[in-house]
Specification:
Blueprint (H helix, E strand, L loop, with lengths): L16 E15 L4 E2 L3 E2 L3 E19 L6 E6 L2 E2 L4 H11 L9 E9 L10 H19 L6 H15 L11 E4 L13 E2 L12 E5 L10 H6 L7 H21 L2 H20 L10 H17 L4 E4 L5 E5 L4 H12 L8 E5 L5 E4 L1
Parallel strand pairs: 5-7
Antiparallel strand pairs: 1-4, 1-14, 2-3, 4-7, 4-8, 5-6, 8-9, 10-12, 10-13, 11-12
Helix pairs in contact: 2-3, 5-6
The protein binds ligand DP6.
């Protein structure tokens, strides 16, 4: 599908008001998106596990108004919120051409997260995808033509991407690919459910998020992506992401857990290496991040385990492990890793099936 396919040309704005509600999960990238071009087009393909427990629930109430400018208010966890408004304003500006009805209505956006506020967990993926899905439900109400589920999901992902790149990978589960590449069915414009075979070893994978640093991110991902412009290793990195995705596809089918670990951990460290070697440079890991990584490596060697780690653009650690090791790894986390978490906080999650409609 191309960009023009997502432009809504006619709709019935005689509807005065309505309410829609969605919950949408966060996701954790295995091959990382780091570097983008204009209009939120990724420089390299990425693939992620969709999560299950970490999600945003968003209700949008729309009321007819004069069609001149955008009008919206935001409530976060029950309280009026001004902080999110600029990001949502930018989102409106980027999506208006595709959902022109956003000028015809006033929107009351009520949103909350299932994970603790200021936990350092990126909420932009779940938040922007939930909002995009709400706008798609509004579009569905305002159009008389039946929309296929495939089109609905693709356009929701397309809109979510314009809010935050990684958000386009949160609409569906269990694995989603975004960014054109030769090894999987894919697009730069939206995320697509991974079309390859997935061995039982990788079903219902577990992700325990260790909250090492709950503070504000040192570098926003928007600034981080920009650091890839003119980065001395950018070309090689983008090429590597294509190779890692192709290799991961084969690994996901074969069930080779050691090979999986090699790619996942290398991707996480490469992401951080990119930030350490950009100008300006950043170290986003904290001493406790490294302590945890070393503990995971020791545990893995001593117990012939398949636990591994990945990182976002921050200090928190995502501990990934197969379902079969759930009990033992959780025990290890509680005994040995919780001590490195801020206030002992961690979140247990696992792979999920994507967003859920709550109210149509
Ligand atoms: C490190 O999606 O947050 O999590 O498109 O600027 O909103 P924007 O960036 P964002 O970047 C996420 C980067 C990452 C890796 C990933 O999720 O692939």
């Amino acid at each position: 599908m191309v960009e023009q396919d997502f432009i809504l040309t006619s709709y019935n704005n005689a509807i005065d008001s309505g309410k829609v509600k969605w919950s949408s999960p966060s996701n954790i990238a295995l091959v990382k998106y780091w570097g983008k071009r204009e209009h939120q087009i990724p420089e390299n393909p990425s693939i992620s596990f969709t999560l299950s427990n970490c999600k945003t629930v968003t209700e949008v109430t729309f009321t007819k108004k004069e069609s001149d400018s955008y009008s919206f208010e935001v409530y976060f966890e029950g309280e009026k919120n001004e902080v999110f408004k600029p990001k949502i304003q930018t989102f409106f500006e980027r999506i208006e051409v595709y959902v022109p009805f956003i000028k015809d209505y006033h929107f009351k956006i009520e949103t909350s997260n299932t994970f603790p506020h200021s936990s350092g967990i990126a909420s932009s993926a779940s938040g922007m995808s939930a909002l995009a899905l709400c706008f798609m439900s509004v579009e569905e109400k305002l159009t008389e033509i039946m929309m296929s589920k495939d089109y609905f999901n693709k356009k929701a992902s397309f809109l979510a991407r314009l809010g935050s790149g990684s958000a386009c990978r949160s609409i569906e589960g269990e694995l989603v690919v975004w960014g054109q590449n030769k090894s999987t069915e894919s697009s730069d414009l939206y995320g697509i459910k991974f079309d390859g075979e997935v061995h039982p070893n990788f079903k219902n994978y577990q992700d325990t998020i260790l909250l090492v640093d709950k503070g504000e991110k040192q570098v926003s991902s928007t600034v981080g992506h920009q650091l890839m412009y003119g980065h001395p290793f950018a070309t090689q990195r983008f090429k590597q992401a294509h190779e890692n995705l192709a290799n991961l596809k084969a690994i996901l089918a074969s069930g080779d857990q050691k090979a999986f670990i090699n790619i996942i951990e290398s991707e996480a460290l490469t992401l951080h290496a990119m930030m350490m070697t950009s100008m300006p440079y950043f170290i986003l890991m904290k001493p406790n991040t490294l302590q945890i990584i070393n503990k995971i490596w020791n545990y893995r060697n001593e117990n012939d385990s398949n636990v591994c780690f990945t990182l976002d653009a921050g200090a928190n650690v995502h501990v990934l492990y197969p379902e079969i090791e759930k009990e033992s790894v959780l025990e290890f986390i509680k005994n040995e890793l919780v001590a490195y978490c801020q206030n002992g906080h961690f979140i247990t999650d696992h792979v999920g099936n994507g967003a859920e409609l709550i109210k149509k």
